[in-house]
Each structure stands twice: as C-alpha cells, then as structure tokens.
Write a structure and sequence with these properties.
Keywords: Oxidoreductase. It contains 15 helices and 18 strands. By secondary structure, it is of the alpha/beta class. Strands 12-13-14-11-10-15-16 form a seven-stranded mixed β-sheet, sandwiched between helices. Strands 7-6-5-8-9-17 form a six-stranded mixed β-sheet, with helices on both faces. The protein binds nicotinamide-adenine-dinucleotide.
Length: 458
Amino acid sequence: MSRAEPDLFEVVNPATEEVIATVPMTSLAETDAAIDRAAAAFDSWRRVAPADRARLLRAFAAAVDADREHLAQLEVANAGHTVGNARWEAGNARDVIEYYAAAPERLFGRQIPVAGGVDLTFQEPLGVVGIIVPWNFPMPIAAWGFAPALAAGNTVVLKPAELTPMTALRLAELARQAGLPEDVFQVLPGRGPVVGERFVTHPAVRKVVFTGSTAVGKAVAAGCAAQVKQVTLELGGKSANIVFADADLDKAAASAPGAVFDNAGQDCCARSRILVQASVLDEFMARFETAVRAVRVGDPTDEKTEMGPLISAAHRARVASYVNEPAFTGSCPDGPGFWYPPTVLTPGRTDDRAFTEEIFGPVVSVVPFRDEADALRIANATKYGLSGSIWTRDIGRALRVARGVEAGNLSVNSHSSVRYSTPFGGFKQSGLGRELGPDALNAFTETKNVFIATEEQS
Ligand code: NAD
C-alpha cells in the first residue's frame, strides 16, 4: 500500500511574493490523534493547582514578551503587516496571556442561600476547546481564544489560517519553553475543511471558537448545533464612522483613513462606511482626500509605512471586483507584491454591493445624512453589527447614537475597538458571544450546582 503524498502548503510573503516556508498541513488522522491527546491531557491540566496554572501562563506571557520582536518580524514577512502594527499585535498577545494568567485563582463560584443545606456553584472547565483563526490578525485572535481557555482549565487545539501559520507555530514553541505541557496547547496548521471541520464534528471537542467570514461561521454554527456544542463566533463587519457637523472635522478627517485602511482594510472593525452630515460633506471630503493621498503604502518593514499589501493575489482580485469608478485613490507600489491603493468610492452611492458587503480591503464608501435619525437608519441598514465610531462634541448625542447603533463596540471621537480587558464581539451576523475582558472566562466554563443537605429530611 502506498503512503499518501504529504499535503504541503507554501507560505508566501505578500509584499515580495517569495515563498518563506513550506508547512505540512495536518491530516484528518493527525487531527483526531491531536484531539485524543488533548482530551487525555485535560484530566491532569484541570487538576493543576490554580496558582501553578497561573505561574505557567505568566511564564508563557514572559516568553512571548522576550520574543516580541521576532514574532513581529515573522508577521511582517508572513502577513505583510507594517512593522509598527506587527509589534502592537505581538504586544497584544502578550498582554492577553498576562491578563488571563490572573484568572485561575479568581474563578470564583457562588454560595446561594437555600433551605435545608448548603448550595454551591462551581465554574468548571469544558474539556478540549477548538480554536479556528483567520489570516488577518493571526496573533491577537489566537491569544484571545487560547489564553482564557487555558486559564479556565481547558486544553486547546488551534488551527491557524492556511495562509498565516508562522506566528501560531512560534507561539506553540514559546508555550513549551515556558513549561506548558505539550498536549495542553497544540497548534495544527491545516485546511479549513479538514482540521477546522473536524473540530466541529469531533465529540471530544466541547467548544469551538471561530473567527472568520460570516459564510463559514454559519456552517460552523450549524455543525456545532448538531451536537449542542458551544460556539463563539467572531465574523464580518461593515462598520459606520458617523461624523456630525459639530465634530472636530480636522481630527475626524485626519483619522478616517487609518480607521479603514489600517491593515490594508483587512480588519473586521474597519470603518468602511463613512456617514457625514450633509451640511459639512464638502468640507469633510476636502480634508479627507488630502489625508488619503498622504497614506504611505509600501514596504512593510519600513517604520514609516502606514499600509502594506493585501494577503494574496486572489484576495486582491476579490477586492478589485467591488470597485467600478472610484472618486479618487491613493498610491501604491507596482509589484511584486499584492498591492492595492487606498480607494474612496463616489460619495452617495448606497445602491451597489460595495456599500452593503464586507470588502475586507482598502475601499471606503462615503454617504451624506440629514440628521441623527437618518444617520442611525443608514448605520443600521446592514446585516452586520461589529463596531463603529461617532464624531460629535455633543455628549448627549454621542450617547444617544452609541446606544442606537446595533453594534458591539462603539467609540466616540476615537476609532478604538479592542482593549484586552473589555468585551469584544458583534451584534446580528457579526457574531455570537464575546471575547476578552472578564466575561469571556465564563464562556470557557460550565456552571455546576451542588446541593449538600445539612438538615435531617423530614
Ligand atoms: P474564512 O472564513 O475563510 O476562514 C477563517 C478560518 O476558518 C480559517 O482558518 C479557515 O481555514 C477556516 N475554515 C475554512 N473553512 C472551514 C470549514 N468548513 N470549517 C471550519 N473551518 C473552516 O475567513 P478569512 O478569509 O480567513 O478571514 C476573513 C474574515 O474574518 C472576514 O470576514 C473578517 O471580517 C472576519 N474576522 C472577524 C473578526 C471578529 O472578531 N469579528 C476578526 C477578524 C476577522
């Protein structure tokens, strides 16, 4: 009997089109074996004293910290992220692990007063958690899943995206260096329909955390439903950046390009629809155009670069398919590399798919609105609901609009979406459940209730 050819994946630097590594894709049989090992390791990992689990996670965070520059450079080469962004991403992964390292000793249960005895609730780990990661922010998104899962006493199998396995593989090495048992945190580079789907169908995987497109997320949720398996979904977005006439227009216009073109627009929180109060549209557009034309697109290893390439040629073709007649574009290098310029669509067009679908590239729509009610109507006219920004000097309006937008993460006079200590996640088809912050821990536990009779039964 001949052995099957190994399934190898060539990892490409999107800024140079050079192959930087050849990574074997995990097979179905290897995935099953890894899940079995993770299930066996759960028995001992859940029993590790909370203080010791905390110490191991702190050591893991320290190992990531010591390796930050290396991790950042790996991401620059693998995903084409600007070096400034990649450093932030490595730092975010470190912060998230450190934050949840405090959790094992603080996973408090409750004692609820009842008649006839003592009633205790415990937060118990689930077992094996399967984490499926997209290619756009490989390091942070991996850490948002595995750090709370491990802290709560679960074991983890993690699948990075086919295109971007490098930093996840390095994180697994760092976990081992820090002393985490090998089978407690395993990284399985592989294909979605092989490894990812097996996380969904394998009965020993008790929870799936999926970050990626809404289309695949729906299939993952349906598969989990068949086994009543827990699932957290972090999916697509089409977020609004709402600029009122009373806003600081200089700041709003100067920051708007970064809010959508950061990571070349490959950001689930990208503010890809700019809603501007009609009375200041021309004023805003003049400032915005100057800012867009100034965005420095090019070599991601250069500290001054603000935007790198798209992830692949196929993705660039998909992005380009949304653009008919742009109002104006910034500039970008010719190639090699999967470059695409910052692109602003003709203001006012709300009738085409570029205004309703997630493009996941450096393309932005601009739409005027009349008043608050009109702004909310346009902002909410999407199946997505992940994030958004509101620019105004009126605090009452800021809060009214923030409460009115159907999205999980809003910011006022800022474009911030992610802080490791606060909840992150989407409304509507942007997702299910929340990551980060204190609440995410509960998403990796089951609540168990135990009653102990202390009175003679009558
Ligand atoms: P994708 O859905 O194509 O893939 C995501 C992951 O799922 C990859 O690891 C892929 O291999 C795997 N996968 C593919 N098919 C699968 C299957 N049948 N079963 C199980 N797993 C499968 O998404 P992508 O193109 O890698 O990422 C871009 C998308 O991710 C965008 O829509 C973006 O908005 C979304 N995203 C959301 C968030 C968030 O937090 N809400 C964050 C980042 C990215």
